[in-house]
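WARN retry 2 of 3 for item q-0093 after timeout on previous attempt; input resubmitted unchanged.
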Amino acid sequence: MAQDVNKLKTILSAAPVVPVIIHDDVSSARALAEALVAGGLVNLEVTLRTPNALKVMAEMAKVPGAVVGSGTCRTLEDLKASQDAGCQFMVSPGAPVALLEAAEHVSIPLLPGIASPTEAMAASLMGYTYLKFFPAEAMGGAPVLKSFASPLPDLIFCPTGGITIANAPTYLGLPNVICVGGSWVVPEAAIKAGDFESVRRLAAEAAGLAR
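OK item q-0093 returned
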């Protein structure tokens, strides 16, 4: 099976928002994860966009309650490295067939990104039910996802890209959305200042969003 649907459903349904994290400071990784989990956001997507991303994941994975995922996965090497770092789910910005095939050789589930009905159907034909809609706002936002619901009733989405505390409820109100991904809960200025209480408050606000 290309995607462990039950496992991914359990993970993605745990909180309405998945923080999309770009972080390179291994020394503060644990404090950041603790603040997010304390606020109620347990799924942490750490993107492979910094030199120390894998080390950051490994540190965050030590935090009780944290479910660490790897974002911006683009190759089989990315998938394997993420698995070795202790991740429990992976996220990719797109869904090329080669990547979906590569994911079959890794034991943790992949949430591939799509931006069109054709891409969603192609992923579905390879056994994928849960998909990331990316970049959500740039591709038309909630109205587009709403239009997907009737012709693609079996597919469930996690929209990411341009999501904010203001527009997240609109997405979360759609029947084919299980959660959203967002970076607003991890503001760079607060993290650099060591203000993890602000991060916890933002996480708590996001965790309280209705689905």
